């Protein structure tokens, strides 16, 4: 019995000494309870935050391209917007017939024409725009009622297939080129008519947009 007690005491002393040795020589931060809890957990993969593109496009344009985004007006408070090379080329305080932004030798100009009595001014603007011009247009409220036939015909010559189909409060956006041809693979025009059964806003159709990339060497 004495030998058993002596053996038990010796074993206890050995275990205490081993624990003391480990505690004294192993760094405190080597193993922690938190680290032990992490063992066996599946790693959580987090996707990096998406990088913002120019004009808020979903995907970036290739190098050597201009970036554009045209948004029509919608409802009384949602004004049309034109973004070009990540700069807001348009902020129109009033309801617009069409907005034109032209680029030539890296200079720009923007005009906003009300459909009441400015069809002639809009036509003069288009005619005076130099070769190598981009024309970006959008409507807000009504771009049809008082838009003169000659003005519609001039926009049609720029390549519009919908300008003569614009109805009361139709949402319409269009991009055209003067003096050169735009790529065939970009969307150049879009229209959305007012429909009381489908309108997003009371008496107003939803706003629409087109966006894309234009090679700089075309201009």
Automatic annotation (TrEMBL):
Residues 113-179 form the ILEI/PANDER domain. GO terms for cellular component: extracellular region. The keyword Disulfide bond applies. PROSITE patterns: GG_LECTIN (PS52031). GO terms for molecular function: carbohydrate binding. It is found in: Secreted. It comes from the Eukaryota. Keywords: Disulfide bond, Lectin, Secreted, Signal. Pfam families: ILEI (PF15711). The keyword Repeat does not apply. Belongs to the FAM3 family. This is FAM3B protein. The lineage of its organism: Eukaryota, Metazoa, Chordata, Craniata, Vertebrata. The gene is Fam3b.
């Amino acid at each position: 019995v004495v030998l058993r007690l002596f053996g038990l005491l010796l074993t206890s002393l050995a275990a205490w000494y081993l624990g003391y040795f480990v505690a004294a020589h192993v760094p405190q931060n080597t193993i922690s309870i938190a680290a032990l809890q992490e063992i066996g957990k599946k790693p959580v993969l987090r996707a990096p935050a998406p990088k913002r593109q120019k004009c808020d496009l979903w995907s970036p344009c290739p190098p050597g391209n201009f970036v554009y985004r045209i948004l029509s007006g919608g409802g009384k408070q949602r004004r049309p917007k034109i973004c070009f090379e990540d700069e807001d080329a348009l902020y129109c305080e009033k309801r617009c017939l069409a907005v034109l932004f032209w680029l030539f030798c890296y200079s720009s100009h923007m005009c906003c024409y009300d459909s009441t009595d400015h069809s002639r001014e809009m036509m003069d603007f288009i005619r005076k725009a130099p070769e190598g011009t981009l024309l970006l247009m959008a409507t807000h409220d009504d771009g049809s009622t008082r838009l003169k036939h000659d003005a519609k015909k001039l926009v049609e010559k720029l390549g519009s297939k919908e300008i003569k189909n614009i109805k009361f409060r139709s949402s319409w956006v269009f991009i055209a080129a003067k003096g050169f041809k735009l790529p065939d693979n970009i969307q150049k025009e879009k229209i959305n008519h007012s429909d009381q059964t489908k309108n997003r806003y009371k008496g107003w159709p939803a706003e629409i947009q087109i966006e894309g990339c234009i090679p700089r060497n075309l201009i």
